Amino acid sequence: MKFDILTLFPNSFAPLTESIVGRARENGKLDINLVDIREFSKDKHKKCDDTPYGGGEGMVMTPQPLWDAIESVKKRDSHIIYLTPKGEKLTQKLVEKIAEHKNIVLICGHYEGIDQRVIDNFVHQEISIGDYVLTGGELPAMVLVDAVSRLIPEVLGNENSAQNETFSNNLLEFPQYTKPSEFKSMKVPEVLLSGNHKEIEKWRLEQSEQLTKDRRPDLMSCSTQIIFKTQTKEKTVERVVQFLKSPNRKTFFNNICKSFNIQEDKLTNEDFLEYATQQTEAVWEIRRSDMENLENIYQNKWNNISNEIFEKFESFFGEKLEKQKLMAYIWPAMVCPYDNTGFYVSSYIQGERWNNILKTSIHEIIHQFWWQIWDTIFAGQVDKLKYEYPSVSWFLSEIAIDIVGENSGLNSYYDKNNSYDTFYNIKIQGRNLMQEMNLIYSQSKNLINFMKNGYEFLQKNIDEFLNEYNK
Ligand code: ADE
């Protein structure tokens, strides 16, 4: 990675010869080229600033020296950044984006800033390092170089240390301890000495969450919290039995039988319950450690991406989501139902596991929002509509969720393959249902209208729809 740093004060950059950044430069992982803007000035006194047109305090950097300095270093793929308190605020996420560029040009302003024409012509991105005003862009440039450099592979000693820490998952980092285990009578928390990695991970996540809640609630502000937890054996049995008693939910029914090695012809016996429980418990036991290992993996992955998802989601709906906590129960079946305690995600999916979890989670958040809308349309009936099966409202929200995914860009987070096959193939009056629904969506002025119109359409064709769905 190469930085060209354009500055009037190249001597200020001595700190970038020290420590990790200094070593990265010596190893050839990082190339920093300091360019003295003054050397490009065509003025006989090498002047680089002048008074602002229109009057006002201070001086502005003149365009000519800066223009020529930029021209001298600029390559086809250069990403040009101007450091200014007016810029977009630097965050770890932004640092990660910037680190994707190979050639970065940093412009350090001074005085009251630089001539706008230089910005308009060259600058891709204006960045501020915080809501305070410094005397120039040199310190901000060093902050940026430092933060970006440590993401270059092998610049940090331990590959993991760039990943795990504060901010990359919107949580502050957990407390760290080192030897000795007891110092001035203060002991290191027991769990860290236990060698039990699962317990340690759990402790660290709890610490991170508590710390973030106390100190930086803003980092957690927009997230509906999703908590990933292995479903208990008892609840798993309860759910399985419930599905087995509803053979009209064909997709679910078949999947449940497959996931828990349940033979359909044995379900007619009087000892139905005993048989189903035994099969379910056996599979649950076998998969238990796999499910428990997935808790942290799923949780971290979700925390990493959730804010981004909520931003997209809220900008699509144009309003904030109600704050809520959702449980995501990890269980050993392939189907992902939901009930009034949370939704289910699978520990047992062929292919890209996380892709499915993400899809289910996004789906579920949209679903939750959906019920808020339902409440305004069918006041008082929501609970009845919500869990009744088969119900038109349930189908409609399934379809609508897909339409929302398409139109909000949220579907870019997951692979749509086979997620809605059943719906995609349904034909009503010889026409493809999803196409009809999309048509209704484009004719409805807003989502609420779409829900009303879509509901009417499905209700009118309910017999054909159910027939097709259960084929
Ligand atoms: N120049 C002066 N103050 C600055 C800040 N906060 N961020 C970036 N550049 C600056």
Element layout with pairings:
Layout: E1 2-7, H1 19-26, E2 31-36, E3 49-50, E4 60-61, H2 63-73, E5 79-89, H3 92-98, E6 103-108, H4 116-122, E7 125-128, H5 138-149, E8 182-183, E9 186-187, H6 190-193, H7 197-215, H8 217-220, E10 225-230, H9 233-244, H10 250-259, H11 272-317, E11 325-331, E12 338-339, E13 342-346, H12 353-377, H13 382-387, H14 392-408, H15 421-425, E14 427-428, E15 431-432, H16 433-443, H17 447-460, H18 462-469
Helix pairs in contact: 2-4, 9-11, 11-12, 12-14, 14-17, 16-17
Structural commentary:
The protein folds into three domains: about 160 residues, 3-Layer(aba) Sandwich (Alpha/beta knot), CATH 3.40.1280.10; about 45 residues, tRNA(m1g37)methyltransferase, domain 2 (Trp Operon Repressor, Chain A, Orthogonal Bundle), CATH 1.10.1270; about 240 residues, no CATH class. A hairpin with a 2-residue loop joins strand 12 and strand 13. The relative contact order is 0.07. By secondary structure, the chain is α/β, with parallel strands linked by helices. It starts with a strand and ends with a helix. It has a five-stranded parallel sheet with strand order 2-1-6-5-7. It is globular, with a radius of gyration of 29 Å. It is about 50% helix and about 15% strand. Helix 9 packs across helix 11, helix 12 packs across helix 14 and helix 14 crosses helix 17. The model has no long low-confidence stretch (mean pLDDT about 85). The structure holds adenine. The site of adenine (ADE) has 11 residues, from strand 5.
